[in-house]
UniProtKB/TrEMBL annotation:
The gene is Letm1_1. GO terms for molecular function: ribosome binding. It comes from Helopsaltes ochotensis (Middendorff's grasshopper-warbler). It holds the Pfam family LETM1_RBD. It comes from the Eukaryota. This is LETM1 protein. The chain crosses the membrane at residues 58-81. Residues 43-128 form the Letm1 RBD domain.
Amino acid sequence: GKKSIRQKAVDELKHYYHGFHLLWTDTKVAARMVWRLLHGQVLTRRERRRLLRTCADLFRLVPFLVFVIVPFMEFLLPVFLKLFPEMLPSTFETESKREEKLKKKLNAKLELAKFLRETIAEMAKRNKADTG
């Protein structure tokens, strides 16, 4: 069914609360990783990617906080998100945005696989023609 304005506002507040909570958790984990790096330990590839994502999220948070702090500027947030879709930190992504990104990645991988398959088939034809 259709949600009331109050329910939509509550849902948005929950979304932002959970986003900030996840960002805080990621920041704590990233701080531990930086501490380990400073003490000479080596990070795994997964930890390195998480550290880079968290740092990028913290840099994206600065312009996002302007929308949260300045009164009534949150009404302009959808306009800026349309202009700059990567402005929000990754912890604030909705499920639909996440699915959309996964679909784009999958389509790109399928196109690459199709290209490679066609290239291999063409190379096989050439080799067959050369040997025959």
